[in-house]
Design a protein that fits this description.
Blueprint lengths: L1 H13 L7 E6 L8 E4 L2 E5 L8 E5 L7 E6 L9 E3 L2 E5 L4 E6 L7 E7 L7 E7 L2 E6 L4 E5 L7 E6 L6 E7 L2 E6 L4 E7 L2 E8 L5 E4 L2 E5 L3 E6 L7 E7 L2 E7 L2 E5 L4 E6 L7 E7 L6 E7 L2 E6 L4 E6 L6 E7 L6 E4 L4 E8 L2 E8 L4 E2 L4 E6 L14 E4 L2 E4 L2 E4 L7 E4 L7 E5 L2 E5 L4 E5 L7 E6 L8 E6 L3 E8 L2 E8 L7 E7 L7 E3 L4 E5 L6 E5 L7 E6 L10 E4 L2 E5 L5 E5 L7 E6 L11 E5 L2 E5 L3 E6 L4
Parallel strand pairs: 1-33
Antiparallel strand pairs: 1-57, 2-3, 3-4, 4-5, 6-7, 7-8, 8-9, 10-11, 11-12, 12-13, 14-15, 15-16, 16-17, 18-19, 19-20, 20-21, 22-23, 23-24, 24-25, 26-27, 27-28, 28-29, 30-31, 31-32, 32-34, 35-36, 36-37, 37-38, 39-40, 40-41, 41-42, 43-44, 44-45, 45-46, 47-48, 48-49, 49-50, 51-52, 52-53, 53-54, ...
């Protein structure tokens, strides 16, 4: 039932139309990055989840300047795909194989989604040999499709006897290896779509089939098997500590060794590969997925989180170019000159990326700055990485960046801890930082002074949202799963003290209507909008929880021009009229034109424009001048 509901939500997202005031979207590379594929200098990065793009497309025909050119929506978790003529086939969860037209590699489009109805739920892996596509699914056996018309695969055979959950299928001529997630692999022959098991072999990892030679990669070595007799495979060679990256030429294979070592093998005789040269990648590379085309190596650098290109033609691995990717759901701040700062946290690092806000369609990040410190999880979809611009400076958590030149941000004060939310009032900033609330004097930036800290040390304290009033701080504490609003008296900022608290439905953020002494607290999971009377700070009262304003989760809320703006996750950015502050009335919803996830995580309002951030897009709307 959960899966069906999720599918209904995603179907609705795919049909979303832009709201009337929508102007344009800036589209940037986002996602956790999975496998890579390359053709003619164009690189496809498949994302492990698809809250933004399922596939990121980079034009790297100038390898010194790879650039993001487009993205492709999709469903589920993607696994390694394969090319066939002008098509690319990608196995994905929810029973499907995406059939993607790549006749224009810079603008791929999905022509169909093959829903295969595997009993276990997923298409796990696939392989193509000649005009046959082989697809393995969890519990569903092996299915064979005729792809002589590659855009319209036609089922021709089903072999339910191979019911293991497949990790890999490899085919070369009449030989096939089916490698399950567990247990022994099956060596088989293929004749007229009939698959006949010949033997079983325990294999330790990824495999590659070169004619009658099977390369097996374990965590320790490359093992060469002679499978000319499929009934009696024989080990004929071992190479310690290497695994295949890809073919650089018909008889050249690039191997990855321990750490950042690379080895080029002559495999003109696959039974007796011969090392030709060894190279080391630069020390600043943390290699993730790799692929190769000719003398060019493409790497997802998991340390810098970028697509990097390298030249392998010489005796050393020469770095050529780089294009950054935003790794996780992010937070947003705007510069004074049309640039956007996107911030996300991953582990102990916060990364700030800069891009232009006025570019329609795809855009690359123009600058990147990473700094370390303590981090904490804000909620179940992204980490805490709030940023706030103050003049020519940017607060990133409690770190300070000089962004007077947005293309070259400079870290002036590294953060010690990330923030889930930052509120600024005059020269005072309040930061919600998990187990603490920090007060900063930001009136003399770049110097920033820690005025005080509220850290009660309660079990499960988790400060996620913060709002500033006159002499008061209002914080959302998601302590041990039970949200509450806590009111702090900061008349002496060095000694903030709690003067009142009030339980509210599960929440992350809040905003203060100062004239009415009213706090709006949206739910974090469709819990409606709770109104809290804070006129008596020592005795705040939850007045009511209004239905009809919020359907999913809210990650950001602001008051602007007598209206309440707030994210409603996959339902867009909503606006409620506050003519009667105790009875906000929903008047409009801003939703960008998209076939992608519309899960908005942050927004800003500047110069009568609303900038809404979701996983791979920044949507911009014109706001009416009143």
């Amino acid at each position: 039932m959960i899966g069906f509901s999720l599918l209904v939500i995603i179907t609705a997202m795919l049909r979303a139309e832009p709201s009337d005031a929508w102007r344009y979207a800036t589209w940037f590379p986002a996602g956790p990055g999975g496998s890579l594929a390359v053709r003619d200098g164009n690189v496809l990065v498949l994302n492990g989840w698809t809250r933004g793009d399922a596939v990121l497309v980079f034009d790297a025909q100038d390898p010194a300047a790879p650039r993001f050119v487009s993205g492709l929506p999709g469903r589920g978790y993607l696994r390694a795909g394969t090319f066939h003529k002008n098509y690319f086939y990608i196995p994905a969860t929810w029973f499907s194989v995406m059939v993607v037209d790549v006749s224009d590699m810079t603008r791929p489009h999905m022509t169909r989604n093959l829903f295969l109805n595997f009993p276990g739920g997923d298409a796990e892996c696939l392989a193509i040999d000649g005009d046959r596509l082989y697809v393995g699914g969890r519990g569903g056996g092996l299915r064979i499709f005729d792809v002589s018309q590659p855009g319209a695969p036609m089922p021709v055979a089903w072999h339910p006897q191979f019911a293991e959950r497949m990790a890999q299928i490899v085919v070369s001529g009449r030989r096939m290896v089916l490698r399950p997630n567990r247990g022994e692999s099956i060596l088989a022959t293929v004749t007229d779509d009939e698959i006949i098991e010949q033997s079983r072999l325990r294999l330790g990892g990824h495999v590659r089939l070169l004619g009658s030679v099977l390369y097996e990669v374990t965590s320790r070595e490359l093992i060469v098997h002679d499978v000319s007799d499929m009934t009696a495979p024989e080990i004929v060679g071992r190479f310690p500590g290497v695994s295949p990256v890809g073919m650089t030429a018909p008889d050249r294979m690039l191997m990855r060794g321990p750490d950042t070592a690379l080895t080029l093998l002559d495999v003109s005789n696959p039974l007796q590969p011969v090392p030709l040269k060894e190279m080391m990648m630069p020390e600043d590379v943390t290699p993730g997925q790799m692929t190769v085309e000719g003398d060019l190596l493409y790497v997802m650098d998991t340390g810098r989180y970028s697509l990097r290109t390298f030249d392998l033609s010489g005796d050393a691995v020469e770095p050529l170019g780089e294009s950054f990717v935003i790794r996780n759901a992010g937070n947003l701040a705007l510069s004074a000159d049309g640039h956007v700062f996107l911030s996300y946290a991953q582990g102990g690092q916060t990364t700030v990326l800069t891009m232009a806000a006025d570019i329609r369609d795809a855009v690359d990040f123009t600058a990147r700055l990473t700094h370390s410190g303590e981090g904490f999880m804000l909620h179940d979809t992204h980490n805490a990485a709030a940023v706030a611009r103050i003049g020519n400076f940017l607060l990133s958590g409690d770190g300070v960046l000089d962004v007077s030149d947005p293309l070259a941000p400079v870290m002036l004060h590294p953060r010690t801890r990330a923030a889930g939310d930052i509120a600024v009032r005059g020269g005072l900033a309040a930061l919600a930082q998990g187990d603490r609330v920090t007060l900063l004097d930001v009136s003399q930036l770049p110097q920033r002074v820690v005025l005080g800290e509220y850290r009660p040390g309660g079990e499960g304290d988790h400060f996620a949202g913060v709002a500033l009033g006159d002499g008061m701080v209002y914080v959302v504490n998601r302590a041990a799963g039970q949200s509450r609003v806590e009111i702090l008296d900061i008349s002496d900022p060095a000694q903030p003290r709690r003067v009142g608290l009030c339980d509210v439905p599960t929440a992350i953020v809040a905003v203060l209507h100062e004239d009415e002494k009213l706090l709006y607290v949206p739910g974090a999971s469709g819990g409606g909008m709770t109104l809290v009377d804070v006129s008596d700070p020592s005795a705040p009262r939850a007045l009511t929880t209004l239905a009809g304003l919020l359907d999913t989760a809210c990650y950001r809320i602001r008051i602007h021009g007598g209206k309440l703006y707030y994210t409603d996750s996959m339902r867009g950015i909503k606006v409620a009229d506050l003519a009667d502050p105790r009875q906000p009335v929903l008047i409009e919803t801003h939703m960008g034109a998209t076939q992608h996830s519309a899960s908005y995580t942050d927004f800003e309002i500047r110069d009568h424009k609303l900038y809404g951030l979701r996983y791979s897009h920044l949507d911009v709307w014109e706001l009416a001048v009143e």
